[in-house]
Amino acid sequence: MAKVPSITSRIVTLDTRSAAPPPKTAEPIYATREYAEWRRIVIYRANGYCQDPACKYPNRHGIRLFADHVIELKDGGAPFDPSNGLARCGSCHTIKTVAERSKRSGARCAPEEG
Question: Looking at the 3D structure of the chain, how many domains does it have?
Fold first, then answer.
């Protein structure tokens, strides 16, 4: 059987930003043994379920979970206290992180009504 030749794209992606954002780097705390142990405890305690009270899919089991600080480190949260941790699915983790960053920057998450 003959192979079908693949066609590669000749379209070049153009970055139109005037200044490229700095590369994302992880905080050094995330490479520590203490953080790894905290993460293990938080995720183990969740028993494979997202613990976010607003999760749209609370009964999904065996999904990838993120150990999330309830009070973020940048806002003064305790870095290794398991009571400051909640296991969240990727969707809930992203929603919470974006909301917290918006609050910290003074931006509004949603337009005002009225």
Answer: 1
